[in-house]
Amino acid sequence: MIGNLDYTTLQRIWWILASVVGALFLFLTFVQGGQTLLWQATRDEEEKSLIINSLGTKWELTFTTLVLFGGALFAAFPKFYATSFGGAYWVWILILFTFIIQAVSYEFRKKPGNLLGASVYELFLFINGSVGILLIGGAVGSFITGSNFTVDAYN
Asked: What are phi and psi for residue 2, nearest 5 degrees?
């Protein structure tokens, strides 16, 4: 018991915090999904650059809420965190990879002398906005359905 709060009350407070942050994260994934509409929503290169610049200022907030959501779940329910996130390890690694290519795309899309060209970075943004969001849905879905994992002498 900490002060006047028992462990169950603290878990409920953390659960409320995790729920609010999780809801905020899911709302912010619309930024990710917006990246998939770059080719349909723009008429010319200037409009595309304006949309990408406006989305680029918000992706860090999305990633930060994802990390905060994981931290809140770990603080409230460490065993749940260990089994849920550990069971979907490869999915979370792929999600991290899509966030990495997103960050690189926003940073280097219009840099002079980039090796890949702007269209490749725009394709990376499309991959993050489509594949990344589907992977996040699969990972969050594994919280409910569970994931196949084993514990033995080797892990």
From this structure: -110, 110
State the Cα–Cα distance between residues 130 and 73, nearest whole angstrom: 25
Model pTM?
Answer: 0.75
pLDDT one-digit tens code per residue, 19-69:
898 889 888 888 777 788 877 878 888 888 888 877 777 778 888 888 888
107 Cβ contact list (under 8 Å, min separation 6):
none
CB 81 within 8 A of CB 73: yes
10 Å CB burial of residue 136 (0-12, 13-18, 19+) is buried
| Dihedral Cα 118, 123, 125, 126, nearest 10 deg | 150
Angle of the 89-108 helix axis to the 118-127 helix axis, nearest 10: 150
Hey, is 42 helix, strand or coil?
Answer: coil
